[in-house]
């Protein structure tokens, strides 16, 4: 499986939620303003509400709840 095909759920210093597709971030919940991004906007890697642009520098794996 190529790295581009792998999808991982990530947070940004424990806040927000995004999917990491290779090195591309699809922002679902903004860690800055806590708003949900629409599916169309999530692929822009930017919050449609406040303009936050996430950085891989702050990304960490999301907890699986265990």
Structural overview:
With 66 residues, the chain is mainly beta. It has a domain at 3-46. 6% of the residues lie in helices and 33% in strands. The chain contains one helix and four strands, in the order βββαβ. A four-stranded antiparallel sheet has the order 3-2-1-4. The longest helix is centred in the middle third of the chain and has 4 residues, at 39-42. The protein starts with 6 loop residues before the first strand and ends in a 5-residue tail after the last strand. 15% of the residues are buried.
Q: Helix and strand succession?
A: EEEHE
* Terminal Cα span: 26 Å
- Which outline best applies? globular
Radius of gyration based on Cα positions: 11 Å
* Sheet with most strands: 4 strands, antiparallel
Low-confidence stretches: none
Helix fraction?
under 10%
* Proportion of residues in extended strands: 25-35%
- Could you say which structural class the secondary elements and strand pairing correspond to? mainly beta
Give the strand order of the largest sheet, numbering strands 1, 2, ... along the chain. Answer: 3-2-1-4
| Count of helix runs | 1
Number of strands: 4
């Amino acid at each position: 499986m190529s790295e581009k095909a792998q999808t991982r759920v990530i947070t940004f210093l424990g806040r927000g939620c995004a999917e990491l597709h290779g090195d591309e971030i699809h922002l679902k919940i903004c860690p800055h303003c806590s708003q949900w991004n629409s599916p169309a906007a999530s692929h822009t890697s930017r919050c449609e509400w406040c303009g936050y642009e996430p950085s891989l520098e702050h990304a960490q794996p999301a907890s699986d709840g265990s």
